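Q: Structure tokens for this one, please.
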Amino acid sequence: HRDLHSFPTRRSSDLIQSGTLQIGTNDGNGSLGLGPITNQATLDFDTTSTLVLSNSIGGNGNLINDNAGNIELLGNNTFSGNITLNKGTLVVGPNGLGSSTNIVVNGFGTGNGTALALTGGVTISSNATFSCLAGPFDNRISLLNLDSTNICNGSLFLSGASAVILNVVGGLLQINTDRKSTRLNSSHLGI
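A: Here is the predicted structure, written as tokens:
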């Protein structure tokens, strides 16, 4: 288990070979350098701040957001590990999800709760599973479409006693599951 607190200008690559690399310790500290990241284990974000990652992330390790911070994956990612969101917001650009096929969002808190936000033309592949586990009352989950046309071709599983919110802030959200197509935009919300 390693913690990184502040290396924002470091340009070398990061290799997570075993264990967990934790960014932050339940605070606003922590960052990664600007070089490529190879994750063969676990990359865990435990920060309350916003981290914008334009560098590439590769490998088959897991990515976790464990705190209220906003993590923005805007690089040309190729990682294939599981993505688990326990709190906060994960913003992903067109290649932000890499080739990950298992995305789990666990509800936490009111408002938008735990959120996955799509921007710039994301396509979630047809072999991906997107699981929204809202949990007890008032532990919400949001799938946010920030802009552009973003497409979810994978399986979408919803469960729990609280709200799962589809929010089209801008652009168009298209959800294709079981050979059905549903399009949502700011003037038409519904499935």
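A few notes: The first strand starts at residue 2 and ends at 4. Residues 129 and 155 are 5 Å apart (CA to CA).
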